[in-house]
From TrEMBL:
Name of the featured protein: Molecular chaperone HtpG
SUPFAM superfamilies assigned to the protein according to its UniProt record, in alphabetical order: ATPase domain of HSP90 chaperone/DNA topoisomerase II/histidine kinase, HSP90 C-terminal domain, Ribosomal protein S5 domain 2-like
Source species taxonomy: Bacteria, Pseudomonadati, Bacteroidota, Cytophagia, Cytophagales
Chain segments annotated as coiled-coil in the UniProt record: none
InterPro entries hit by this protein: HATPase_C_sf (IPR036890), Heat_shock_protein_90_CS (IPR019805), HSP90_C (IPR037196), Hsp90_fam (IPR001404), Hsp90_N (IPR020575), Ribosomal_Su5_D2-typ_SF (IPR020568)
Alphabetical list of Pfam families matching this protein: HATPase_c_3, HSP90
Keywords, in A-Z order: ATP-binding, Chaperone, Nucleotide-binding
NCBIfam families: PRK05218.1
Family, as annotated: Belongs to the heat shock protein 90 family.
Amino acid sequence: MATVQEKGTISIHTENIFPIIKKFLYSDHEIFLRELVSNAVDATQKLKKLTSMGEFNGELGDLRIEVTFDKDKKTITVSDKGIGMTADEVKKYINQIAFSGATEFIEKFKDKADGKDIIGKFGLGFYSSFMVADKVEIVSRSFKAAEHEAARWECDGSTEFELSITNKQERGTDVILHINKDSEEFLDEWRLKGILEKYCKFLPVEIKFGTTEESVEDGVDSEGKTKYKSVTKDRIINNPSPLWTKSPNDLKDEDYLKFYKELYPFSEEPLFWIHLNVDYPFNLTGILYFPKVKNDFEIQKNKIQLYSRQVFITDEVKDVVPDFLMLLHGVLDSPDIPLNVSRSYLQSDTNVKKISQHITKKVGDKLQDLFKKDRKDFEKKWDDINIFVKYGIISDEKFYDRAKDFTLLKNVDDQYFTFEEYKEKVKANQTDKDKNLVYIYASDKGKQHSFIEGAKNKSYDVLVFDGILDSHFINTLEQKLEKIQIKRVDSDIAEKLIDKDEKIESVLSQEEQDQVKSVFEKAINNKNMNVTVDSMSPNDLPVVITMNEFMRRMKDMAKTGGGQYAFMGSMPDNYNVAVNGNHPIVQKIIKAENEEAKTKLAKQTFDLALLSQNLLTGADLTNFIKRSVELIS
């Protein structure tokens, strides 16, 4: 065993760590403004807390935060009228990297205040200033103005600073950034306005940025018409009391719709929404909206905004929101979601998992409630919301358990059924010889119309599965529902969709069947077309082209990110060509005067089958048209 020679602590020098903090702490340089405004909000909220606890008895006055810039002087200034700092506090909070004043404040007054309105946590946000500034000044006067003079701190981005007494009269703090040459893009009104609106839109203290011109009524003219005049007003960037901070009992539908327009000005109205308001075992508030998605859902992602105490964090919420609910819109706000020091990325832990599970439960409960309260209205919304439900069933075992009672199956006649209802509807006529229930579906009612009619002629019911996720959804249903097989309506001839061990007698001898098969194989001349001669009703089509259910489904799944099925996408299409041996046209082929006439007639019949499924293109289509003209001339 090795002998220990020495023990000690690792030494970290600020000369080494400070450049790292400045350059690499934040992935996006625009974050500096969010951090400084958040600090200003903290300073203001602390003063409010002290007032409510009787620790400060002075006048609060106007607590508005102001952001200004001077293009000529190349400065950006963030000013607040909050708690302020003494010279000693500046040394304590600013000179000690990663010393969080917010953490100390909460600890100091933990018996009097819960600190839920205090944003800061890591004590590093201020240093994001040096990503864009050559020099930073802090001018601050403490709320204890009678006891302490105002302090001025200055640093050029090195580990050296200057601290002096200054002549600031008002309580609060001004942070002045002297913008470096590489960051002069931020000395632009619309650039700064965009950053403030992105990150500070719902901060709990009013934020002023410049002014704006508004037109207001100014009496009437001599003709009795209303006159207007232009007035200059302060431009307030944020809404300090967003809807999710209010009690659901105090809100009406129009409030939720108005807030949705505030979040997504160019979107259609949502279908419905869920207001989250949890304070145990974690804090979570927010509003999630169900938009109209249908099949084009990829472009809808990243529409949920994550906040922490009303500070925008990110719209990348995949660790907090289950993947199938990433299609929702809205906001989530939680101080209990652990973030790294830049607040830009989520770290998965127990709270995150609990929050994710809670959101899943609330969505399931809401859908269940809508289904029970108004089944007809739920059915009207189904075409828009089914993608959420199916995605959830595919990806989340627990959600399937919640959703199985309100998930609907829709048939080609626009009738809706729960799983149990549909089972009862079809079991009498759609049970095969092995006691399996066979569900038949169409993925395109127009293209598969003839197959649908063939199934209906046998009194089969046909479902509609035409969504982008339905190939995966069908697979899941077959795994979940006992003794259920699901087949696309064009995966086989109607007589074979459900094997009931019933056979139609053939009018052809075995020799004639072999002859017909040979003629069609020669006419088709395609190794990916498997020809069979089947006994069908004389009223059925002479040739039916189908693709094996398993093969077609795997190829569909490959198109939508099939994972283990991806290789199927590159495989050639293989089809079954069922020739109806009982159709009169087959008799014509047998009796044709020579091989050339037989082949020509078989080719024409095969091309008709291709045409019915939009599979006849290019030169084959041109030749079919020419041949058709010859046959009817």
